[in-house]
């Protein structure tokens, strides 16, 4: 068989993850210490696991309604009202297999061939390939360190064309840790009002923000709810990555079409996970706080440690990543990370894996214990010292 | 202060500078807080969690459940502090439930501990009975696993 000829061109053209070989290399190093993963190190809080187990004991092992258990959808609405200042009804909610599926469905429901999708980079890498699979055209916008990696209204305005269909708003951001505060969002909203552009607001890290202000959803700004699909989920806030559960909320006509696609290719999100998630939303606000406080301590520690060794990073206010600049080394991101891996056996992710504008940076996850972070920081410091990239202070 | 104590409880060896970064305070402030906590007696000491078995050192540990007769005026305090004053004794806790005091004792051998119980604990006037259980194996102590450390099995990079 000539598979090369058989495979669909759009699928074949998907950007291969260059990072794969890099992490295969890491996997062969027994003493390698990784700061590479993008999921919580916490276990799912016990009460949530227990709720999943109880649902199994009760034999709740069937499909659920396509859009998700009604009780869960109602609970999602209460949660969004309580914590995100968003008012939705259960018919505005679709429960999905992770935020990932919600992103896929949003793009597939809205984007036709030739439609442009504006994607601020560096960012999580799924938006671009999914857009390309629909025949849409990704239009990247580079966000900059000097803007604290926020999307600016000027950059957005410059990227809009008559073919623009969708703006992806990935904040709090993976990999930069950037957040958009209310004023920055208002400036973006102002550009969009009066256009037909929809917004996919990926708010999967909404519970993980640090500082005085809580996360603000663009859907909560005047006039924005009708053009916004909010994607959220349980992976990050409740340390539930393996349960594969997320959701989208938005205007009913869009959610209805997304539900049709979901019905055809997924049927319904995992039943056990849905029952567990009801408990998560009902009784785990405190657990979120405990985990967030722990991330916050690590975040402050890592930011200071990196700045002290001359890998400058702006202070990330969300998610669990820091995004230091590695240009003092004179290397590309990929060279820097590969040499750090080979010489000191520390695995971090080159910034350009998240889009061309990530070049010159690297992503460090702090979803690790303090002991683990300390060891890693010592090795990175040694790496810089051995190459003369670190002026000895004091 | 509570946050500082939680950090120290998990890892007492963190440099003051790092703790200061975590708490968004200056190192001097953190040092002052630690002094204050020590003066107030909130911090009772710093010690290492040692796996003596792995270190190849023979050490025997026993947990002793005591029934005692409390005194009218001072309740359990008097007998508890008498027992606490023995060097062999590692901890003394007043318990709710089926017995009164839980005493842990460390020694070089079973005989040493048996002798301690027979010659020093049991003869005390207020001690009514003792039940000694020897520790066979430590699986977790101070929040740390001693046998099978949990491996980090996260594989997905998430780009
Ligand atoms: C920005 C962003 N969005 C969405 C997801 C998808 O998460 P999940 O599918 O587990 O809900 C991730 C996962 O890392 C992410 O970083």
Provide the low-confidence segments of chain B as ranges: none
Question: Which blocks of ≥5 consecutive residues of chain A have pLDDT under 50?
Answer: none
- The tally of beta strands of chain A, per DSSP, is 12
Main sheet attributes: strand count, strand direction, barrel closure of chain A:
7 strands, mixed
What about the largest sheet of chain B?
4 strands, antiparallel
By CATH, the topology of the largest domain in chain A is Aspartate Aminotransferase, domain 2
How much of the sequence of chain B is in beta strands?
Answer: 15-25%
Biggest interface, and residues per chain? A-B, 27 and 18 residues
Could you say which structural class the secondary elements and strand pairing of chain A correspond to?
A: alpha/beta
General description of the model:
- By secondary structure, chain A is of the alpha/beta class.
- Chain A is built from 14 helices and 12 strands.
- Chain A has a 7-stranded mixed beta sheet with strand order 2-8-7-6-5-3-4, with helices on both faces.
- Chain B has 2 domains: 2-40; 52-138, Alpha-Beta Plaits, CATH 3.30.70.
- Helices cover 32% and strands 21% of the residues of chain B.
- Chain B is α+β, with helices and mostly antiparallel strands.
- In chain B, helix 2 (16-23) packs across helix 3.
- Chain B is extended and about 65 Å long.
- Chain B has 5 helices and 6 strands; from the N terminus they run αααβαββαβββ.
- In chain B, the strands form 2 sheets. Chain B has a 4-stranded antiparallel beta sheet. A two-stranded antiparallel ribbon of chain B has the order 5-6.
- Classes of the chains: A alpha/beta (394), B alpha+beta (159).
- The interface between A and B is medium-sized, with 27 and 18 residues.
- The complex binds pyridoxal-5'-phosphate.
- Pyridoxal-5'-phosphate (PLP) is lined by residues 38, 98-100, 124, 170, 174, 202, 204, 233, 235, 241, 246 of chain A.
- Pyridoxal-5'-phosphate (PLP) binds next to helix 6 of chain A.
């Amino acid at each position: 068989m000539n598979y090369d000829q058989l495979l669909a061109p759009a699928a074949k053209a998907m950007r291969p993850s260059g990072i794969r070989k890099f992490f295969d290399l890491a996997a062969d190093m027994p003493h390698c210490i990784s700061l590479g993963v993008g999921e919580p190190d916490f276990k799912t809080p016990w009460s949530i696991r227990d709720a999943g187990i109880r649902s199994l004991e009760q034999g709740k092992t069937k499909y659920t309604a396509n859009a998700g258990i009604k009780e869960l959808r109602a609970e999602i609405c209460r949660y969004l009202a309580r914590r995100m200042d968003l008012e939705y009804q259960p018919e505005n909610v679709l429960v999905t297999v992770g935020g990932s599926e919600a992103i896929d469905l949003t793009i597939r429901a809205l984007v036709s061939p030739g439609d442009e999708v504006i994607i601020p980079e560096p960012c999580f890498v799924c938006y671009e390939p999914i857009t390309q699979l629909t025949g849409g055209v990704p239009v990247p916008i580079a966000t900059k360190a000097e803007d604290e990696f926020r999307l600016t209204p000027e950059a957005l305005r410059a990227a809009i064309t008559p073919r623009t269909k969708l703006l992806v708003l990935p904040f709090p951001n993976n990999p930069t840790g950037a957040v958009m505060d209310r004023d920055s969002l208002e400036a973006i909203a102002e550009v969009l009002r009066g256009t037909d552009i929809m917004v996919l607001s990926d708010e999967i890290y909404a519970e993980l923000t640090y500082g005085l202000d809580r996360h603000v959803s663009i859907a909560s700004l005047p006039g924005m709810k009708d053009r916004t699909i909010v994607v959220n989920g349980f992976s990050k806030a409740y340390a539930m990555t393996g349960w594969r559960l997320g959701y989208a909320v938005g205007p009913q006509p869009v959610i209805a079409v997304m539900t049709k696609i979901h019905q055809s290719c997924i049927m319904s999100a995992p039943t056990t996970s849905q029952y567990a998630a009801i408990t998560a939303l009902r009784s785990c606000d405190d657990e979120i706080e405990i985990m967030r406080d722990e991330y916050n301590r690590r975040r402050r520690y890592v930011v200071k440690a990196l700045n002290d060794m001359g890998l400058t990073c702006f202070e990330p206010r969300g998610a669990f990543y820091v995004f230091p600049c590695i240009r003092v080394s004179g290397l590309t991101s990929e060279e820097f990370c590969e040499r750090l891996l080979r010489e000191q056996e520390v695995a971090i992710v080159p910034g350009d894996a998240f889009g061309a504008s990530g070049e010159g940076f690297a992503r460090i996850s702090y979803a690790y214990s303090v002991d683990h972070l300390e060891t890693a920081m010592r090795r990175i410091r040694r790496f810089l010292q051995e190459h003369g990239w670190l002026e000895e202070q004091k | 202060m509570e946050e500082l104590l939680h950090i120290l409880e998990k890892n007492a060896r963190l440099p003051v500078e790092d703790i200061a970064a975590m708490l968004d305070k200056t190192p001097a402030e953190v040092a002052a807080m630690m002094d204050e906590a020590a003066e107030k007696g909130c911090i009772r000491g710093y010690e290492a969690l040692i796996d003596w078995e792995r270190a190849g050192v023979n050490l025997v540990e026993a947990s002793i459940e005591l029934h005692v007769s409390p005194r009218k005026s001072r309740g359990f305090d008097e007998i508890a502090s008498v027992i606490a004053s023995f060097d062999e004794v590692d901890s003394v806790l007043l318990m709710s439930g089926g017995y009164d005091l839980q005493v842990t004792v460390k020694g070089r051998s079973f005989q040493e501990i048996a002798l301690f119980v027979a010659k020093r604990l049991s003869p005390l006037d207020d001690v009514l009975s003792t039940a000694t259980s020897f520790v066979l194996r430590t699986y977790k102590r101070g929040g740390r696993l001693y046998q099978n450390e949990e491996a980090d099995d996260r594989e997905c990079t998430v780009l």
